[in-house]
Amino acid sequence: MKLIPHLSFNGDCEEALHFYEKTLGGKIEFMAKYEGTPAETQVPGDWRKKIMHATFSVSGQTVMAVDAPTGHYKKPQGFAVSINVDDQEEAQRIFKALSESGVVQMPMQKTFWSPAFGMVTDRFGTPWMVNCENPK
């Protein structure tokens, strides 16, 4: 069994995945737009170039994503995507990038379990926790 996060976006899925690819060192594995699929007729014309389904990988782990059809997008709440790294400088770098034009809930700081932990909702609306587990 695998647990695979599936992130919904409000029209900026492609931009978000390219940002995550650069920030997290991942790779967009698959990206399909509504255009050219049976779902094309179920979305407004200006939505046909949006992402119907995408997969993104980071360190052998998969995340799926979509531009939710018009009227179906809901702002994420009640969860966060947790990034755990071993390097404190890498944790700081990732947190800083995710924080740009985002909303910081907890600044990156030392906690009783970690030398670097922070919580942020990025500019795309995705909530993140960045945690340094085994500092080098």
Give a quick rundown of the structure.
By secondary structure, the protein is α/β, with parallel strands linked by helices. 18% of the residues lie in helices and 36% in strands.
Strand order of the largest sheet: 1-4-3-2
Instruction: Give the CATH architecture of the largest domain.
Output: Roll
Distance between the termini: 32 Å
List the secondary-structure elements in sequence, H or E: EHEEEEHEEE
Q: What is the radius of gyration computed over CA atoms, rounded to a whole number of angstroms?
A: 16 Å
How much β-strand is present in the residues?
Answer: 35-45%
User: Strand pairing plus helix content: what structural class?
Assistant: alpha/beta
Domain count, please report it.
Answer: 2
Low-confidence parts: none
Q: Sum up the overall morphology in one term.
A: elongated
**Tell me, what is the CATH class of the largest domain?**
Alpha Beta
